[in-house]
């Protein structure tokens, strides 16, 4: 099983961070949020990644190209130009870094990435490079394979941005700082897909995965929902990033499912 990660957008809603780096490289706890997402998948045995690059994609390439060096103890002999690695804490990951265009939309990026699936890859995971969750990825994959449809989307109910009051008259009987939004289930951005979804993608870079492809899959009865009641949080704004950083610092990062 491979995971395709869409990591090429501009991240304009968090411009305070993305003016100098791509959004997936914005750090939580000293590591890019992209790394956190990959750790979530790896905990469920998904260790091969296809990362769709766009805006400032060279920074993601450079990060992983030098990743082993940054994670190891090394001795560098400047005279001879040799390097000895004494300790290597890198993960057992295989990563394909694919330039999918600076202005390409999500469906166009997915279409370009599909060529990096292997011949035996009947299905694969897809997600965005800016959201974390304690999602049971293994459960989502098992559910997808059990129903036989072309696509599975994780359905989540996000926390409300505002506190809610349980009132009887003017008496507050209960207060919830961040209750679950009762507005219904939304697209949580974690998909499991049959590779035949390629037929739903147009040949244009303007193809938006969340529009015609998903709408057609739904209309044809080929889209099922895997319901996730646990933690889920996108990093859309600076406030989101600060909240995630605070959770990490307090050791309350619900998405940290690895040891």
Automatic annotation (TrEMBL):
Q: What class of enzyme is it?
A: transferase
Q: What is its EC number?
A: 2.7.7.33
Which BP terms in the Gene Ontology apply to this protein? O antigen biosynthetic process
The GO terms this record gives for MF are: glucose-1-phosphate cytidylyltransferase activity
Keyword field: Nucleotidyltransferase, Transferase
Q: Which residue intervals define the domain Nucleotidyl transferase in the entry?
A: 2-207
Highest taxon above the source species: Bacteria
PANTHER family, per this entry? GLUCOSE-1-PHOSPHATE CYTIDYLYLTRANSFERASE (PTHR47183:SF1), GLUCOSE-1-PHOSPHATE CYTIDYLYLTRANSFERASE-RELATED (PTHR47183)
Q: What is this protein called?
A: Glucose-1-phosphate cytidylyltransferase
Species, as recorded: Sphingomonas piscis
């Amino acid at each position: 099983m491979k995971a395709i990660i869409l990591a090429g957008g501009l991240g304009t809603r968090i411009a305070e961070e993305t003016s100098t780096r791509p959004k997936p490289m914005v750090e939580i706890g000293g590591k890019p949020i992209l790394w956190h997402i990959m750790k979530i998948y790896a905990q469920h045995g998904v260790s091969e990644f296809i990362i769709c690059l766009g805006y400032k994609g060279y920074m993601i390439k450079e990060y992983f190209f030098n990743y082993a060096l940054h994670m190891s103890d090394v001795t560098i002999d400047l005279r001879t130009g040799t390097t000895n690695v004494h300790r290597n804490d890198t993960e057992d990951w295989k990563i394909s870094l694919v330039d999918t265009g600076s202005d390409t939309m999500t469906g166009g990026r997915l279409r370009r990435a599909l060529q990096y699936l292997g011949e035996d890859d009947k299905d694969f995971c897809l997600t965005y490079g800016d959201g974390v969750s304690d999602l049971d990825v293994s459960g989502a994959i098992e559910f997808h394979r059990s129903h036989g449809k072309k696509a599975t989307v994780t359905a989540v109910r996000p926390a409300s941005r505002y506190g809610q009051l349980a009132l009887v008259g003017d008496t507050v009987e209960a207060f919830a700082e961040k209750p679950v939004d009762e507005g219904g289930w939304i697209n949580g951005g974690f998909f499991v897909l049959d590779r035949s979804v390629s037929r739903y993608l147009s040949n244009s870079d303007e193809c938006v995965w969340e529009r015609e492809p998903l709408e057609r899959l739904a209309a044809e009865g080929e889209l099922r929902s895997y319901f996730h009641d646990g933690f889920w949080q996108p990093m859309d704004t600076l406030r989101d990033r600060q909240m995630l950083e605070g959770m990490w610092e307090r050791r309350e990062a619900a998405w940290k499912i690895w040891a």
